[in-house]
Design a protein that fits this description.
The chain is an alpha/beta fold. It is built from eleven helices and eleven strands. The two termini are 44 Å apart.
């Protein structure tokens, strides 16, 4: 009887241990995905690379995207080496970045150096800080209307990329083209990547910008998955409107995108990419009046099957009903307003990081 009692306790202990192991295994993702953020998420603070790295480490991030050359106080090799060393000490990897690379885009600064020279400088800096990717973008939604037009911008971007192929390959840094500000739908980004050369041009997959150009983030993910090396991840509220659909960017978990399903797919088809949160709040809702004929002038080649998935997103989505300080308003802003924006950006990024960890099971360093 005593023997049986001890045996039962032994089996119960073993069973409890097995359950604990199973729970622990369940908490560990099958494919670890690095979690970090793009520096635009905290733009109101005007921090430079050293402060940004310290902040990322304080949030137990694995990575950070220094997405602008303006994030650096200097471009001198000694300074960049210090940034690389600081990131290593803090157990952070860096994804580098720069801005517009299309000389025909309305976003290209006409008094700036030639696009090719800027890309070469971006690649040099990316390599110096230890990055394997350099985010950049072609333009904005304005390039879809008027002259020279979106296809001419695509051709000019391909030409710039082809002109730096050998230098990019020598550097070991991939040019990561973002689907940016409503400039291109996923099929168009894929065309630029493939026509330029997929051996050195890749995708910076933005999960928020697809709704700007009437595309479901799932379509963007599926089309660009083979080329993704870095990301911008944020949520969007999308809902039906009498003229079509309305949309607004929100913190992760506040919107209409099923990010549990999104991350499940992301793990399977983008296993080598990090997840960089680019949380942009403070912008009012916008309307896609796709029930009106003039709306379609910038989108004459959008496949009906892809548009249908955006319509489905709007039908099942909902508006954001929380409070939000609106950043994009005209006029001079008092100091208190700037401080409110800082607080909002920090709070929305940090609660988005928490959502990614606890709800999506993403990230590595926070588990330690």
């Amino acid at each position: 009887m005593v023997v049986n009692m001890h045996r039962r306790r032994f089996l119960e202990t073993m069973s409890a241990g097995a359950a604990a192991k199973a729970a622990s295994a369940a908490s560990e993702p099958a494919t670890p995905v690095k979690l970090g953020f793009d520096t635009y998420s905290v733009r109101a603070f005007k921090w430079k690379a050293p402060q940004l790295l310290d902040y990322a480490a304080s949030q137990k991030c694995d990575t950070i995207q220094l997405s602008s050359l303006g994030d650096y106080e200097s471009r001198e090799p000694a300074y960049l080496a210090k940034i690389k060393d600081q990131a290593a000490r803090l157990h952070l990897s860096i994804d580098a970045g720069m801005g517009c690379v299309c000389p025909l885009s309305k976003m290209f600064k006409k008094n700036a150096p030639p696009a090719r020279d800027q890309v070469l400088e971006g690649l040099r800096i990316a390599k110096a800080v230890g990055s394997h990717a350099m985010r950049c973008f072609m333009g904005s939604q304005a390039d879809r209307l008027g002259e020279p037009g979106i296809e001419a911008c695509m051709e000019a971007t391909i030409k710039v990329f082809r002109s730096v192929r050998s230098q990019a390959l020598d550097s070991g840094v991939k040019i990561a083209l973002e689907n940016h500000a409503g400039d291109m739908q996923a099929r168009e980004v894929r065309t630029v990547i493939e026509e330029s050369g997929k051996d050195f041009v890749a995708s910076c997959l933005d999960a928020g910008n697809p709704v700007w150009c009437i595309e479901s983030p799932f379509v963007t993910l599926e089309v660009l998955a083979p080329y993704v090396v870095t990301t911008h991840v944020r949520d969007s509220a999308v809902w039906e409107h009498p003229r079509g659909a309305a949309w607004q960017w929100v913190a992760l978990g506040d919107g209409s995108i099923d990010f549990v399903r999104y991350v499940e797919q992301f793990r399977q088809i983008c296993p080598k990419s990090s997840m960089q949160l680019e949380i942009i709040t403070g912008r009012p809702p916008d309307i896609h009046a796709y029930l009106e004929p003039d709306f379609w002038k910038p989108y004459p080649k959008t496949p009906a099957s892809e548009f249908a998935r955006f319509v489905d997103l709007a039908k099942t989505g909902h508006p954001f009903m929380g409070a939000m300080v609106m950043e994009d308003v005209p006029g001079r802003k008092p100091p208190a307003f700037t401080e409110a924006l800082k607080a909002q950006q920090r709070i929305d990024l940090e609660r988005s990081l928490e959502y990614a960890r606890k709800k999506l099971n993403v990230g590595i360093n926070w588990r330690g």
